[in-house]
Each structure stands twice: as structure tokens, then as C-alpha cells.
Specification:
- 53% of the residues lie in helices and 7% in strands.
- The protein has 19 helices and seven strands.
- Strand 2, helix 10 and strand 3 form a beta-alpha-beta unit.
- The termini are far apart.
């Protein structure tokens, strides 16, 4: 027999011996290897019950079941780890739990756990009613729907638990053969690390990437459509016209909405009873030019072509993720100033806001490029004839405009004639700074900054008078609801109790809401799904409040409170943007 044959035989013998040793030391490999542990079940029940406690916004029964199921699985994982530690300590101390004690614990856990689930689920109907009442919804909840909450939670929890046990099985299959050659702790650590590497790689490199690609592809296709009833304009004061360098088919769906829905001069005249101008609206889409600087330069050229720099009001507007601009923020200026206005915006993404938030740099860079380009041209105009320069942004659009101002209040007051920010995000640089520097005693949901000379926060029109001190120029306003999860969700919420839950609370936050580590972070994150499913004035819906805010900021001549009420009534049916915009 040759050398190669001997080597092959030795390899076969070694493989056979290793296989036999692994088989002797390994038990049956299956996903459901044993019944759930009592520690995991106990903490899972606790987390299920806590997930039903009041949050910022009311929830549909299926969403509450999903939240409860995920919460229970996280609790099970924590409880299982704690039980393992307890068992280790008891064995180390020489204690053994007798079978009778185990049976007693399981019986007590079954009775108490079932009682807790039933009781808290039933009681949560009352909590849900309180949350609904806080946001001006009828407090009644369909009882038959709430009965399905634990059913959905059990299904979700079981599914996630099976997935977790499948991962554990994979870890065991990797660790056992390694345990023949290396110490067992090293083998299992290697198995866990390998499993984690594979999971992260699959989620990030395949599932997440595929999901984002699918969303982006769908959003890109949607961006090429045009809303029913919106048509290419012919006025020279608008982008997208045949004479415009920003061609109609490059503006994107939201850009076409913006220029196609400009307030008609006849409508303004009918409202004010005075002659009006055709408002200027300039919009540059992602497809309009190849680079960010080129798009910003084109926006300035469009303002020059349309006569935007000769108007009384020039507003630079930040968009939401898909490029949407809320008509509740744009139309009031056109009515208040008789159409003698110019509004300019640029698209930075095809993606909806909840996805675009993952890539905030695009919003910040676009806002900064647009404002800097407009401001550079504006500064060259004679001081006595150039327009009043304003900035506006809602949600991610407010982040974009704040970034354009370097998150600085002095920059805002020195370079603009006023600003309106609606529903800011937790990462807004200026919002974070001024909120942290608020006067002692003023609540986080309606902070008082300095003496209120330039910046004020409001949820209702009467808030403009807080503090009761002179309000100078320029003026900036933040509109933020106490129940808006877009404003209040942040990573900080996971481990620190927020000041906005201190008393006194905002009028639309349930007095029964409590902060729990990690859980409140998760609950408020889930509230984002329903941020737009509440009446105006609550959640992420601000209705016609921007109308009164623009009155306070710009103080249009000969304007009365009755005019504000009439305009708010006229704009009441305008749709607000959502997290899908």
C-alpha cells in the first residue's frame, strides 16, 4: 500500500473515532428540546402585562398584540438567562430543588400567570380608553377585538421563540464537534460568535438590503407618477412649465404636487377682496440635475427666472422623505401676503420619511446646499428691496432646515426673517440645544427659551403668549404635540426617564402613562405606526395650526383674528403628510 493509501486510511479512522465521540456526548438535536423554563415564562408574563400599559397613542388590537408578543419574547430571554444564573448559584452552593418544589412552582406559575394575563388584558381596555380620550377619540374599545390581543401575542411569541431555538440548535451543532478538540466554553463561545456572524450577515447583507432595495425601487416608480387632478402648469411663476429649466417630468411626484397645487391668484383675490399676484413656487427634483450643487444652483436660477427675489416673502422649505411639502405650511403665506410670495424646495430622496430617517445626511446636505445658495444670492440684493427670507420644515424637513442653519439660534436670527418648524425629530440639532437650555421650571413639551424674545413653542394658539413678555424680531416657532412620537422617540428613552413625562404633562398625554426601562422605548417606537391615525392637533397631525403660526411670525399687514379663522376653515380639508411621505 502506498503512502497515499495509508494516509487515507488514517484519515478515515480519525474521522470515525471523532464521529463516535461526538455521538456519545450529544443528545438528540431538535428545535423543541425541552419545555420552556419557569424563569422565562415568569418574566415573559410580566413583560406582556407591562406592554399593555398606556403609551402616547391608542393602538389597533393587532398592533397591540404584536407589541405584546415581541415584549413577551424579550422578557422570556431575560428570564431564561436569570434562571440559568440562579441554577448555577444553587448548584455551586450545594442546593438541589426537589421535584415536588418544581411542580409547586409550575402550578403556581400557571395559575398566577394566567390570572395576570386575563386581568391585565381586561384592565388594559380601560387604559386604552384613557389614551383615546386624551387624543379626542371616543373612549369605547371593542371588547371582542381586545380578546384577540393575547391570541396574537401568543402566536407572535411562539414564532419568535421557535426562531430563537432554531438558532440555538445551530449553535449546538457547531459547538459540539469543536468541543472534542477545544475546551467546552471555547467551543460554545465560537458557536455563538459564528451564529451571530451569520445572523447579522443575513439580516444586514440579505434581508435588510433586499428590503431597502425593494422599498427604494417601489418608491422610485411611485415618484415617476402624477397625482390625479394635478396637471403641468403654464404660469411663468412656477417650475415645471415649458419655459422652466426644471422640467415637469424630473420634479418627482411630490414636486409636481407642489407646483401643480400652487394657490390660484383668483382664489387669493376672492379670499382677501384685494388684487393679488400669482405665487412663485420653485421645485427641483433628484432627476432635474446630476449633483447636489447643480440642483441648488438651478433652484436659484429658477427663482431669478420666476421673479422670486422680487417678492415680499421668500420661503426656503425643507421636504419630508419623498419630497413632500405640506400645503398647510405653504398655502397660508400665499393667502396672507396676496400671492406676493416665493417658495423654493429641493428633493433629496425617493424614500418615505421612516426610511429616509436612516440616512439623515442626505436631508442635512440638501437643506444646507439649498439655503446657502439662496442666501448667497439674497445677500447681493439691496437691503431695502430684498424679500423677507423665511425657513420652514415639517418632520424630517425641519431637520433639513435646522441643519442648514448649523443648528444655531444666533444663525437663525441673523440670517433669516423667521422660521416655522413643525413636528421636529429627536435628532434636530437646534431643537435639542434650545430644549436642553430651557428655563428651569418650563416643561420639556413647551419649553421657554431665554425670555421668549425670538423663539416660542406651541401646541395650541394660546401658547404663543408664553412667556408673557415682548416678542421681538425675527420670530421662530416650534409646533409640537405632547403625544407626537416623532418628537419624543429617541434612543435616550431606553434607559432614562424623559422630562416630558414629568408633571405637569401636556394635555394629550395620558396621566396613566409610566416610564419603564427599554419597554417605553419600544412602545413609543411602535406608536410611530399610528402617529397619523389620530385627529388634528394630536400625534403627528398639526392641522391648520401652521396658519396661526405664520401670522405670529410674519405679522401680515391689516390681518385680523377673523382672517386667521376664515383661512383655517378654508384649509381645513388639506391633507397632511404622513410617515409614508
Amino acid at each position: 500500500m502506498g503512502v497515499a493509501g495509508k494516509a487515507l486510511n488514517r484519515t478515515r479512522d480519525w474521522t470515525r473515532r471523532v464521529t463516535e465521540r461526538v455521538r456519545r456526548h450529544s443528545g438528540p438535536d431538535r428545535v423543541v428540546r425541552r419545555r420552556p423554563c419557569w424563569g422565562g415564562i415568569a418574566v415573559a408574563v410580566l413583560c406582556y402585562c407591562l406592554s399593555l400599559t398606556p403609551s402616547l397613542l391608542p393602538r389597533a388590537w393587532w398592533l397591540q398584540g404584536l407589541v405584546a408578543g415581541v415584549s413577551a419574547v424579550v422578557g422570556y430571554a431575560v428570564g431564561a438567562v436569570l434562571e440559568t444564573l440562579v441554577r448555577f448559584l444553587l448548584r455551586w452552593a450545594g442546593f438541589r430543588i426537589r421535584p415536588r418544589v418544581r411542580r409547586t412552582v409550575w402550578s403556581a406559575l400557571a395559575v398566577l400567570g394566567a390570572a395576570a394575563v386575563v386581568t391585565v388584558t381586561a384592565w388594559s381596555v380601560r387604559w386604552e380608553g384613557e389614551v383615546r380620550r386624551a387624543v379626542a377619540l371616543p373612549p369605547q374599545v371593542a371588547g371582542w377585538q381586545w380578546v384577540l390581543v393575547p391570541v396574537v401575542a401568543a402566536f407572535v411569541g411562539t414564532l419568535l421563540l421557535l426562531i430563537g431555538r432554531t438558532v440555538r440548535l445551530g449553535t449546538r451543532l457547531v459547538a459540539r464537534p469543536l468541543g472534542v478538540h477545544v475546551p467546552r466554553p471555547v467551543a460554545y463561545a465560537t458557536g455563538v460568535a459564528l451564529a451571530a456572524f451569520v445572523i447579522v450577515g443575513v439580516v444586514q447583507g440579505f434581508l435588510l438590503r433586499a428590503a431597502l432595495d425593494a422599498i427604494e425601487s417601489g418608491a422610485s416608480l411611485t415618484d415617476q407618477g402624477t397625482t390625479e387632478g394635478v396637471h403641468q402648469p403654464g404660469l411663468p411663476t412656477l417650475s415645471g412649465t415649458p419655459r422652466s429649466a426644471a422640467h415637469w417630468d424630473t420634479l418627482g411626484a411630490r414636486g409636481r404636487d407642489f407646483v401643480g397645487a400652487a394657490t390660484a391668484r383668483a382664489d387669493i383675490t376672492a379670499f382677501t377682496g384685494r388684487s393679488a399676484k400669482d405665487p412663485v413656487r420653485v421645485y427641483v427634483g433628484l432627476r432635474t440635475a446630476d449633483t447636489l450643487d447643480e440642483r441648488a444652483a438651478l433652484a436659484v436660477r429658477e427663482l431669478e427666472r420666476t421673479g422670486g427675489f422680487s417678492r415680499k416673502i421668500l420661503a426656503v422649505m425643507g421636504t419630508t422623505g419623498t419630497g413632500w411639502i405640506n400645503d398647510q405650511g405653504s398655502k397660508p403665506l400665499e393667502y396672507m401676503w396676496g400671492g406676493d410670495t416665493a417658495e423654493v424646495a429641493m428633493q433629496y430622496s425617493y424614500l418615505p420619511s421612516w426610511v429616509s430617517a436612516l440616512t439623515e445626511d442626505e436631508a442635512a446636505d440638501t437643506g444646507r446646499a439649498l439655503f446657502d445658495a439662496v442666501y448667497a444670492k439674497w445677500r447681493t440684493l439691496p437691503a431695502d428691496s430684498r424679500p423677507r427670507l423665511l425657513v420652514y420644515g415639517e418632520s424630517l424637513g425641519s431637520f433639513s432646515m435646522e441643519s442648514a442653519l448649523d443648528g444655531s439660534l444666533p444663525t437663525l436670527t441673523s440670517e433669516t426673517g423667521g422660521a416655522l418648524f413643525v413636528g421636529p425629530t429627536y435628532d434636530n440639532p437646534l431643537w435639542k440645544r434650545v430644549t436642553a437650555q430651557r428655563q428651569p421650571g418650563s416643561p420639556e413639551w413647551r419649553p421657554v427659551v431665554g425670555d421668549g424674545a425670538h423663539l416660542r413653542f406651541a401646541q395650541v394658539p394660546t401658547d404663543y403668549g408664553i412667556p408673557p413678555a415682548p416678542w421681538g424680531e425675527p420670530r421662530a416657532v416650534y409646533l409640537q404635540n405632547g403625544s407626537d412620537p416623532v418628537v419624543w422617540w429617541s434612543p435616550h428613552l431606553a434607559l432614562h426617564q424623559p422630562d416630558w413625562l414629568d408633571r405637569p404633562r401636556a394635555r394629550d398625554v395620558s396621566p396613566a402613562m409610566r416610564w419603564y426601562p427599554l419597554l417605553t422605548f419600544w412602545q413609543v417606537a411602535c406608536d410611530l405606526a399610528g402617529a397619523d391615525s389620530v385627529p388634528d392637533g394630536y400625534g403627528h397631525r398639526y392641522g391648520t395650526l401652521p396658519t396661526s403660526a405664520w401670522v405670529e411670525i410674519t405679522q401680515p399687514p391689516d390681518w385680523t383674528a377673523a382672517d386667521t379663522a376664515r383661512l383655517a376653515g378654508l384649509l381645513e380639508s388639506v391633507r397632511e403628510p404622513g410617515l409614508l411621505d
